[in-house]
């Protein structure tokens, strides 16, 4: 492939990697990872609410990695409140998983920025044969893509398996019990998915530029063929 086309491909990959780094950094600070509705089970059972009456006992919740807000309704209007994971909810959440999600988000941002630098260096500079060259580009893209996948797996398990929304809804609630009525992943979570796909796409762009995947075996041009051996 001509050098000019390779520069264009590297520039595109670098811009995509930079966009992922900025998007992930913005997603970390938001509370739009999970949104849902919570039902005041105790209040609904007290008045035997059914059908449309349940809306009077339906509240809302949304949260991210550091903070969130909830509106609890028990028939007497909404009670909005804000909360923070650190240190408020640290005792009721799976702290090791939650901290791991934040750590992998940070690693994703760092390696996306590193990948951006090396993509631009390969486009406009004089790349070296190791970390600055194709092997390094594959490495940064692979690490970033892997971090994105781990973030989604760990956070999904925290929400679905460990019932994070219910734990938050029932935090410091002595007399009322809240159940999760519905929950769905919001914009910030899907940004991580898009970033993982983009880093996988970057690896394909590197291959499209004409570079072999790492550890792939190439034929040695100096190795004699069978026909040459017969000549001797």
Automatic annotation (TrEMBL):
- Record flagged with keyword Signal: yes
- Show the PROSITE patterns listed in the entry: PROKAR_LIPOPROTEIN (PS51257)
Q: Which UniProt keywords apply?
A: Membrane, Signal, Transmembrane, Transmembrane helix
The positions making up the signal sequence are 1-27
GO cellular component annotations, sorted alphabetically? membrane
**InterPro entries tied to this protein:** Clarin
Q: Where in the cell is it found?
A: Membrane
Kindly list the residue ranges recorded as spanning the membrane.
Answer: 97-123, 135-155, 189-209
Q: How does it sit in the membrane?
A: Multi-pass membrane protein
Q: What is its main location?
A: membrane
GO biological-process terms attached to the record: equilibrioception; sensory perception of sound
Would you identify the family this protein belongs to, as annotated? Belongs to the clarin family.
Output this protein's name.
Answer: CLRN1 protein
Native organism: Pterocles burchelli
Q: Which gene encodes it?
A: Clrn1
């Amino acid at each position: 492939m001509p050098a000019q086309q390779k520069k264009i491909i590297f520039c595109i990959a670098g811009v995509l990697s930079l966009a992922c780094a900025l998007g992930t950094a913005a997603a970390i600070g938001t509370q739009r990872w999970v949104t849902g509705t919570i039902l005041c089970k105790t209040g609904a059972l007290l008045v035997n609410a059914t059908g449309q009456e349940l809306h009077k006992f339906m509240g809302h919740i949304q949260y991210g990695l550091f903070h969130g807000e909830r509106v609890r309704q028990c028939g007497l209007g909404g009670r909005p409140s804000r909360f923070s994971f650190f240190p408020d909810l640290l005792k009721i959440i799976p702290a090791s998983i939650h901290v791991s999600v934040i750590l992998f988000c940070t690693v994703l941002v760092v390696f996306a920025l590193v990948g951006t630098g090396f993509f631009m260096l390969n486009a406009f500079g004089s790349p070296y044969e190791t970390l600055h060259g194709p092997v390094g580009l594959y490495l940064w893209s692979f690490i970033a893509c892997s971090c994105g996948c781990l973030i989604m797996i760990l956070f999904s398990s925290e929400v679905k398996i460990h019932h994070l929304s219910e734990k938050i809804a029932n935090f410091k609630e002595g007399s009322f019990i809240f159940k999760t009525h519905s929950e769905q992943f919001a914009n910030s979570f899907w940004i991580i998915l898009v970033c993982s796909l983009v880093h996988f796409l970057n690896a394909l762009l590197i291959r499209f530029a004409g570079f072999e995947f790492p550890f792939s075996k190439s034929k040695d041009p100096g190795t004699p063929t069978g026909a040459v051996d017969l000549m001797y």
